[in-house]
Amino acid sequence: MNLIQEELKLAKSEMFDPIPGTGLVELSKKNVAKVEAIIQNDSAYIKSSNKDACEQGGYKGSTAYWMTRLKPILLGAGSVVDKYDDVLSNAIHAVDRDNSTHLNADGVGRGEMLDRIKKIPRLRLVEYLKCPRETRYHLINVLSQATHPKDSKHKPRTNLSFASKFCHYACFYLFEGEPEQDNYSIYDNVVLRVLPRYCDYYKVSKSRSFARDYLVYQTTIDEIIKAAGGLISRNGFDHLLWYYFKGRD
C-alpha cells in the first residue's frame, strides 16, 4: 500500500455516516460537525461567512459583513455609524449574490425587496425575525409576494428562496448565541427534493403543500428533526442535506 492508498483509506473513516440501506445521511451532530468544517474551509463559501470581508476592490462585502453592520441599527447595540438604507440594500445584495437567488432576473427584484423591508418599522421587523411562528411568518410572506416587472420582457417572481435566506441570515447574525439564531430554515431545492424520503423514513406526515408553503415546509423539517432525536439545529439540517445531496441523484 502506497501513501495515496493510505490516505484514501483514512478518508473513508472521515466520510459521513449514512442510515444503512436507505441512501440517506444520518441526522447526527457528528455529521453536522463534518459538514460545517467542510463549508468553513471551502473556498467557494468561506468569504460569505467572513464578518471582515468588507467592500474592497470589486468585491461588495459578504453576507456576514453586512448583517453584522445591520445588527446595531436594528437592535440598538453600540453606536450606529451607518445609514439604514445603505446597509439594508447591501445586505440584500450580499444574500442574493452569495446564494445565487437571482433576484434581479425580473429587472426589479432587489429594489422591490429593499422597498418592502423599508416600509416595515424597525422594531416590527425585529419582532418578525425574532418571533416567526407568533407572527405567522409574516416577513416570509411579504418578501415572497410576486414582484412587478416594469416591462413585458420580464416575468414576475415570487422569490421564496431569497425570502427564507434573508430571514435565516438576518437571525443568524443578529441573534448570535441566542435560541432565535436558528429561527428560519433555508428553503432550498436540494433539501426540498429529498424531504419526502426523510418523511417516509421517520413516518412524518408528508403534505403536498410543503413545496410552496413555507410554514408547512418549516413544520415538516421540525418534525423530522424531532423524530431523529432532536440533536441537530435547523441550520445543521439545511447544511447537511444540501451538501450531501447536491451532487447525488
Question: Which descriptors apply to this entry?
Answer:
single chain; 249 residues; mainly alpha; 2 domains; two-stranded antiparallel ribbon; 11 helices
3D architecture notes:
The chain is mainly α. It has two domains: 17-45 and 185-245; 61-182, no CATH class. Helix content is 53%, strand content 3%. It contains eleven helices and four strands. The longest helix is centred in the middle third of the chain and has 16 residues, at 84-99. The radius of gyration is 19 Å and the shape is globular. The two termini are 33 Å apart.
Topology of helices and strands:
Blueprint: H1 3-12, E1 18-19, E2 24-25, H2 29-40, E3 55-56, E4 59-60, H3 63-75, H4 84-99, H5 109-118, H6 122-130, H7 138-143, H8 160-174, H9 189-202, H10 214-227, H11 234-245
Antiparallel strand pairs: 1-2, 3-4
Helix pairs in contact: 2-11, 3-4, 3-8, 4-5, 4-8, 9-10
In summary, what is this structure?
The chain is mainly alpha-helical and 249 residues long.
General form: globular
Largest sheet: 2 strands, antiparallel
Whole-angstrom Rg? 19 Å
* Beta-strand percent range: under 5%
Percent range for helical residues?
40-55%
Give me the oligomer status. single chain
Strand arrangement, major sheet: 1-2
Q: How far apart are the termini?
A: 33 Å
Encode the helix/strand succession as letters.
HEEHEEHHHHHHHHH
Total number of domains: 2
Can you give the mean pLDDT?
93
Q: Low-confidence runs (pLDDT<50, min 5 residues)?
A: none
**Which class best fits the helix and strand makeup?**
mainly alpha
Number of strands: 4
